[in-house]
Amino acid sequence: MELSNAIIFVLQAYGLNPSEFSVERIDSGHINYTYKVEPGYILQRINKNVFLRPQVLSQNLKVASSYLKQNAPDYLFLHAINATSGEDLVFDKEGYPWRLFPYFKNTITINEVDTPQQAYSAARAFGLLSRHLSGCDVSKLEETIPRFHDLSLRYQQFKESLSKASDERKHLAHDLIDKYVHYDYLVNRYQSLVHGNRMHLRITHNDTKINNVLFERGTDKVVCVIDLDTLMPGYFLYDLGDMIRTFVSPASEEETEFSKIKIRKEIYQAIIDGYLSEMDSILTIEEKLLIPLAGSIMTYMIGLRFLTDFLNGDTYYQTSYLHQNMNRAANQLYLLELLESQA
């Protein structure tokens, strides 16, 4: 691709000669712009409209990296490269922050889980990250997106959207709205767990999709966990639940033929086994009893966010066709009903 002035500026800020590299856009991901810089690097432009304080991302990674170097020196933790200024963030003329990472050869990412072994390996990798950081002082990390997975907040935003939505959108989503309100007991359950201190606040990844681990090419071995923008304080339900939400069905959240949405029990069990292979000694007995709730909580929350965005006029999530967010919300509701039926 032809290098933009911003990319040229950023590469030079890292002491690299732009003429010696080729740059290719990597399309996966909906928040940041990511580029493969051949040979040897991954370049990322952080979305300043989502991450309002990008320095928090940088500081969180520094805290985690410093802790891991002392307590798990053999663990491969992906951290940003410093620019010639000594800082790991470079701001372009439009105020967008950029970061540069090393590129690991013979690695790939995948967008769909095909086998139990892939699910096990990824779940184990996310669990290993949390286990290694379990002794790190959580208070030293800040939320990069405040209350990102707070179900109480997301339900409040949903209720607010109902009061502001157009009559047309409320009419179109009437049945869907009623069904999401029916599941508000999950909000009450979440609130009781948090307010009752029945889960420990830990350092969690908070975006545990399968394409956020690097696999060794040709194998199911995980090289490292990537996309650490949301590495911050959280509850184990967030990581485990989002894996269940995004791994267990062969159909993605974009599928509109809901009969294709299924619970692959062997994948579900592989997630639990992989995660507990690292976190079994870290989680409390009560937290382990909450494992069946994890998938439902996260699926309900993401579905609520899709529905809220639809009611708000599609202002947050990118859409490519009319009513896409409503379809996404219906998709997640169907998955939620399957998860609840097996609980």
Question: Topology of this protein?
Answer:
Elements: H1 5-13, E1 22-26, E2 33-38, E3 41-45, H2 54-71, E4 90-91, E5 97-102, E6 107-108, H3 116-132, H4 151-164, H5 167-172, H6 174-182, H7 185-195, E7 202-204, E8 213-216, E9 222-225, E10 232-234, H8 236-247, H9 265-279, H10 285-289, H11 291-311, H12 324-342
Antiparallel strand pairs: 1-2, 2-3, 3-5, 4-5, 6-8, 7-10, 8-9
Helix pairs in contact: 3-8, 3-9, 4-11, 8-9, 8-11, 11-12
Give the H and E element order: HEEEHEEEHHHHHEEEEHHHHH
DSSP, total strands: 10
- Helical residue percent band: 40-55%
The unreliable regions are: none
Explained architecture:
β1 and β2 form a beta hairpin. This protein is an alpha+beta fold and 343 residues long. It has 12 helices and 10 strands. The protein has 2 domains: 5-70 and 77-103, Phosphorylase Kinase, domain 1 (2-Layer Sandwich), CATH 3.30.200; 116-342, Aminoglycoside phosphotransferase (APH), C-terminal lobe (Aminoglycoside 3'-phosphotransferase, Chain: A, domain 2), CATH 3.90.1200.
Features of this protein?
343 residues, alpha+beta, Phosphorylase Kinase, domain 1, Aminoglycoside 3'-phosphotransferase, Chain: A, domain 2, 10 strands
Short summary:
By secondary structure, the chain is α+β, with helices and mostly antiparallel strands. It is built from twelve helices and ten strands.
